[in-house]
Specification:
22 helices
Length: 478
């Protein structure tokens, strides 16, 4: 099976979040199951610079009004096609926003061009490349199924999958941009890309894709409800037979506490005492004092969705319980300020790093006792999976992929020896406070805590099972 995977980022080439980890891991995960993936990426400056010269396989005189090239980079490890369109991507700033953090005003054109290039490739644009299926990720690639539907005969026959990583981000624009999409007028319809009088990239992709997947089974059910459907629940319910939930995996080679180059001390489930070196390094980096209580960490966007506004109000409680907290993240200015203020108020007990640091995120998992993930909704979540892998016990809201991947340490689960973390219902101060108190109490019961760590580290969240499920879906569609 020859699959064209279309994404706005893919680790280790370009990453801003979990989407990159998934898009980067899928080729290796599917290879054992008879699927060869080629990944189509935008030609951001960092991508072009890191990959260097490749093979130009096609030149567009005009792709949605700009000059562009498709450049292939292929070796034994990776097979990439980069959409090199300087007018769209050669600029300072991030993949989606300018240096001030404001969204690029031409994002509609940038990512529509990505979808159009994907459909062109599936339609036989490059004779030496033949694709059986297109797998698009999130709103940035969601126009690919739309362009397939309105492409040539070969494109129209090519099945497509759209994976929703987060339904909250939809790519919605005014009707005035439609004329720049180079789509027939028929596409501007309720059964196409039209959405409440404007243009909806994700909505169009969901309407046109052959199959839809979400990144956890629970999230696949949640998005059928108004509470989580973000206005698209009606359409998703109408297409319910085409929706599957496949939980994300993690790269167990990159995330391996026995070999991780970002850790001060390597360890395994049988040598948990060796985590102490990482804990000491973390405390030094975050300016934390010696303590007998648990060291909690947060590795997250500091936003309402992630429940950080609730957690901020409990900083004093965490310290009063005997806990400490190390925070790595960025997001809403008010929440950033609140976390920094808390670190000043509780010097030696709360430490904060604003921003993102890949190496530090590994050390936080390898040295903290527990990771707090109080998301109001979470399609899958990867930080709790990294926590399980590293024996950093997750404290999570019972939603989406968090509910699917963490087994609550209630009395029955502890007695049965299967518990791996702490879940709580409803993202409220009382619910989260109770979960944190349970974690502190269990931490002080060293036998139970060690059992939690060992259970967590035995859990298999590699891509083996999830890769097989994607491969089975590919085969079904073909």
């Amino acid at each position: 099976m020859r699959v064209l995977s279309v994404a706005s980022e893919a680790y280790p080439i370009i990453k801003t979040g979990g989407l990159a980890d998934v898009a980067g891991a899928l080729p290796a995960a599917l290879a054992p199951h008879g699927a060869t993936l080629t990944t189509l990426l935008p030609g951001y400056p960092s991508v072009v610079q890191s990959l260097g010269a490749g093979e130009v396989i096609h030149t567009y005189k005009s792709l949605l009004g700009v000059k562009a090239r498709l450049v292939r980079h292929s070796d034994a490890v990776i097979d990439l096609i980069v959409l090199d369109a300087p007018a769209l991507f050669a600029r300072e700033g991030g993949p989606y926003s300018d240096p001030t953090g404001s969204e690029w005003p031409d994002n509609w054109q940038r990512f529509a061009a990505l979808g159009r290039a994907a459909a062109d490739l599936a339609g036989g644009l490059v004779p030496s490349l033949d694709f059986d299926l297109v797998h698009a990720h999130d709103w940035q690639a969601a126009t690919a199924p739309v362009y397939l539907r309105h492409g040539n005969a070969k494109a129209q026959k090519t099945p497509s999958i759209l994976t929703i990583h987060n339904l909250a981000f939809q790519g919605r624009y005014g009707p005035e941009i439609f004329k720049g999409l180079d789509l027939p007028q028929a596409a501007f319809h309720i059964d196409g890309i039209e959405y409440y009088g404007g243009v909806g990239f994700l909505k169009g992709g969901l309407q046109c894709a052959t199959a839809i997947t979400t990144v956890s089974p629970s999230y696949a059910q949640e998005i059928r409800l108004a509470e989580f459907g973000m206005g698209l629940e009606g359409m998703i319910n109408a297409r319910a037979a085409s929706v599957r939930g496949i939980v994300n995996g993690i790269d167990t080679q990159v995330w391996n506490p026995a070999t991780d180059r970002h850790l001060n001390s390597h360890y395994s489930a049988g040598k948990l005492g060796d985590r102490a070196g990482n804990r000491a390094a973390l405390k030094s980096l975050f300016g934390l004092t010696a303590s007998r209580g648990p060291l909690f960490c947060v590795v997250s966007r500091l936003t309402w969705q992630k429940g950080i506004d609730i957690l901020v109000d409990l900083f004093d409680d965490i310290v009063a319980m005997g806990g400490q907290l190390a925070i790595l993240g960025a997001g809403d200015a008010a929440l950033e300020a609140a976390t920094v203020a808390a670190s000043g108020r509780h010097s030696g007990h709360i430490g904060v790093r604003i921003g993102y640091d890949e190496a530090l995120s590994h050390l936080l998992q390898g040295g903290s006792d527990a990771i707090i993930v109080p998301s109001r909704f979470e399609p899958c979540g990867l930080t709790q999976l990294y926590g399980l892998r590293y024996g950093c016990i997750p404290v999570v809201a019972r939603t989406g992929g968090l509910a699917d991947t963490v087994i609550d340490a209630n009395e029955a689960a502890l007695c049965a020896g299967v518990a791996t973390g702490f879940q709580f219902d409803e993202v409220t101060h009382d619910s989260l406070r109770h979960a944190l108190r349970r974690a502190v109490t269990t931490f002080n019961q060293r036998k139970d805590w060690k059992s939690l760590q060992k259970n967590a580290m035995k859990a298999d969240f590699s891509w083996a099972r999830s890769g097989l499920r994607y491969a089975q879906l590919y085969k079904e569609l073909l």
